[in-house]
Amino acid sequence: MFYFFTVGNSLTQSEHNGHSAVKSKKKDQGQHECEVLDKESEEEEGAIAWQQCKKNRGHPNFIPASDFCLDHLPEKFRCPKALEYVKTISALTAMLRVGYTSWERPNYFAFSQHRGSDVQHTGSALVSEITEHDGPCQCSECDHSPLQSRPQKWFEIHLETALHVIYNTEEAQASRVDFFYDDERAIAEGRKKTLWATEVRKAHSQGDFCSFVCVTHNLDLAQRLQEYLRKSTKAKFYGLSGRWMASGWDNMCVMASHPHGQPKKITLGRLMNEHEITPAHRYYVYSLDTCPGSSGARGAVVEFSRYNNKSFFSLSLLPPHSSRTGNTGINVSTSSAAGYMEPGMAALFENMKFSPLELISAVK
Ligand SMILES: [Zn+2]
Ligand SMILES: [Zn+2]
Description:
The protein is α+β, with helices and mostly antiparallel strands. It has helices spanning 18-27, 42-52, 80-91, 169-172, 219-231, 337-340, 343-350; strands at residues 35-37, 63-64, 93-98, 120-134, 153-161, 175-179, 193-204, 209-216, 250-257, 265-269, 271-278, 281-286, 298-307, 310-324, 331-336, 360-363.
């Protein structure tokens, strides 16, 4: 069983107050990687957590998303195509600020000792789809306007994260989603766009998977994200078995996330291993750095292979980041096929040992 649980006693009322509540909630998540920041002073507290971090002292391998360029890529992957993959994953990554912990979280689940608490935790998420709708906008901004005066075109932005970050719709409705928070200047320059999440659409506890939506009539935001979605492959990542030993095969693992609730950072490493718990449930081990706040981010594997004297690059998404392993630099995401698919498809997949859906693009 691949879960990390914490066991403790219920907190006293005074422990729920102020700073001590932040401290105790940080510890109430086992090996998961959410950051916990007081809503009143989140930016300062995030900056302090970043400075005082013991997991990755000084964060030498965390590259600010806005600065990422070809020179940061390992030599074998230093090409415009691989850079575009990284930029795309980065643009689709959002920060989550979850302002409530639901009473529905089960015992021994992350933050179960803080059920009912409004102490905020943060994580990361990846945009997976955008759907367009006609009729009066249903976003929270338009909530109080008469139907006829609302914009008549609106969008649902679908995102994926870990279930321990957003557990249900009640938590989603207390969650803010920050898009394009790519550097310190993003707030002052108005580049960071914030929406409220509205609803959890799919949840899977074994796979630590959650898919949720936010609603907006912001055409510019929707179109920009849509543009990046078009550049990304729709491929989901189901496994590597069989390819590990292929000659000429190599990979680079990349993740964009919001460590310590700070502006987006990019880390690089390698996919180390996959473990199959059942044919429909596996987890992935990678060597890239993550920190509290990285939970829910989706790593991506850029693969490089050579067949018939031709080089190929492909991009596959990993399931949402779930945990640290205890060793600095070795971290884990977990997935369940059922977390990704319609029930009928998931049943089909149960019988398949290995079926990666991927998009391979030839590079001359
Ligand atoms: Zn850190
Ligand atoms: Zn609206």
